[in-house]
Design a protein that fits this description.
Layout: E1 20-24, E2 33-34, E3 37-38, E4 47-51
Antiparallel strand pairs: 1-4, 2-3
Length: 55
C-alpha cells in the first residue's frame, strides 16, 4: 500500500484535496506537541485536514 507522506494519521484526506480545510488537532489541541514530543496525530503541525464540502 502506498501512502502519502504529507498525510498525517488525523487527516481525513491528503492536503490540497479539493473541498477540504484545516482544523486544530483534537489530540494536541493545536499545539503540535504532546507530552513534550511531536504529536503523532498531526505530525507536529497542530492541524488536521478534513472534508468541508460534499467530497
Amino acid at each position: 500500500m502506498v501512502t502519502n507522506p504529507s498525510k498525517h494519521p488525523g487527516d481525513e484526506v491528503p492536503p490540497d484535496t479539493e473541498q477540504t480545510g484545516k482544523l486544530p488537532c483534537e489530540r494536541c489541541g493545536g499545539t503540535g506537541q504532546q507530552e513534550g514530543k511531536q504529536c503523532p496525530e498531526c505530525g507536529g503541525s497542530g492541524e488536521v485536514v478534513v472534508n468541508v464540502g460534499d467530497a
